[in-house]
Write a structure and sequence with these properties.
It is a single chain. The protein folds into 2 domains: about 190 residues, FAD/NAD(P)-binding domain (3-Layer(bba) Sandwich); about 100 residues, FAD/NAD(P)-binding domain, CATH 3.50.50. The protein is about 30% helix and about 25% strand. It contains 7 helices and 17 strands. The strands form 4 sheets. Strands 1, 2, 3, 4, 5, 6 and 17 form a 7-stranded mixed sheet that branches. It has a 5-stranded parallel sheet with strand order 8-15-9-10-11, with helices on one face. A 3-stranded antiparallel sheet has the order 12-13-14, with no helix packed on it. Helix 1 runs parallel beside helix 2 and helix 1 runs parallel beside helix 7. It catalyses: [thioredoxin]-dithiol + NADP(+) = [thioredoxin]-disulfide + NADPH + H(+). This is NAD(P)/FAD-dependent oxidoreductase. Keywords: Flavoprotein, Oxidoreductase. Pfam families: Pyr_redox_2.
Length: about 325
């Protein structure tokens, strides 16, 4: 057999699992496509002892730790996983396929942003989605919240962002608010500006306002949006992992899927997971994977022991 565990995805979840498994003397390799979800961000927050660090530096440190303990990092994208008689075959775009006893999928998700000019261009700078990641840095400034396809998230986001600033304007865009929804926003101290959003106004290298289709410009310096979260779960669904009613692959508390020997951790199965929770999920999955392999190892040892005892008799 090639490896004990192949990990698809080199973000916080995948690297945390890899470090734990490598320290447990398991042979482990991480397939890292090098496209982390938080790449546009310049700083990370809410990760104890690493506040303000760049996401790229955090991942570089994680990769160094994996290698230090004997794990491997392969710069490649996992393309597919197939079950075999004694484990799995993992295909990737960086060379020959890999064989493994178990698999962890930590491929994350992608953010589908509202199709408003300026949003994609300023994403991760002054167009953001997570108040816990960015709210403190834009506190007491002129904030816009833009309506998008993720209606429940967007409406919740507008009320939540109000904690960081008294100057919040909600632009429903194409969302038709109910009377109750509008009342709750207004009562919260949020100004509602109706009308379709034409674009974000960008002056130099900063958002300066929100322009409506009728040409009205509302000055703003930061825009929060509610992306539609789409898990990169093709490896899991390709294996036949069970999907829950919410459309996401189902896992237990350790990240175990319905397919024996396959785990998943991080944003690929948990859209709200931040860096710290993704890293924790990776560690939990790593422990569960090691226990899974241990059970197999003990069963094989017992079977060999019995065969040996029979021959000796």
């Amino acid at each position: 057999m090639g490896y004990d565990v192949v990990i698809a995805g080199g973000g916080a979840a995948g690297l945390s699992a890899a470090v734990l498994l490598a320290r447990s003397r398991r042979s482990v390799v991480v397939l890292d496509a090098g496209e982390p979800r938080n790449a546009p961000a310049t700083h990370l927050h809410n990760f104890l002892s690493r506040d303000g660090m760049s996401p790229a530096d955090l991942l570089a440190a994680g990769r160094e730790e994996v290698v230090r303990y004997g794990g491997e990092i392969v710069s490649a994208r996992a393309l597919g996983v197939e079950r075999s008689d004694d484990g799995f075959a993992v295909h990737h775009d960086g060379g020959a396929g890999l064989t493994t006893r178990a698999v962890l999928v930590a491929t994350g998700l992608r953010d589908e942003l509202p199709a408003i000019p300026g949003v994609r261009e300023r994403w991760g700078a002054d167009v953001v989605h997570c108040p816990y990641c960015h709210g403190h840095e834009v506190r007491d400034t002129a904030i816009a919240v833009l309506g998008g396809d993720n209606r429940p998230f967007t409406l919740h986001q507008a009320s939540l962002v109000r904690q960081w600033s008294a100057d919040v304007v909600f632009f429903p865009h194409r969302i038709v608010l109910t009377a109750d929804e509008r009342e709750r926003l207004v009562a919260r101290g949020i100004r509602v500006v109706d009308g379709e959003v034409a674009r974000l106004v960008v002056d130099g290298d900063r958002v300066s306002g929100v322009e409506l289709a009728d040409g009205t410009v509302v000055p703003r310096t930061t825009a929060f949006v509610g992306p539609r979260f789409v898990p990169d779960d093709g490896l899991l669904t390709g294996l036949g992992c069970a999907v829950g009613e919410n459309g996401w692959v189902s896992v237990d508390g350790s990240g175990r899927t319905s397919v024996p020997g396959v785990w998943a951790a991080g944003n690929v199965v948990d859209s709200p997971a931040q860096l710290s929770t993704a890293a924790a999920a990776g560690s939990s999955a790593g422990i569960a994977l090691n226990h899974h392999l241990l059970a197999v190892d003990v069963d094989e040892a017992v079977a060999n022991h019995r065969r040996s005892s029979t021959v000796d008799a």
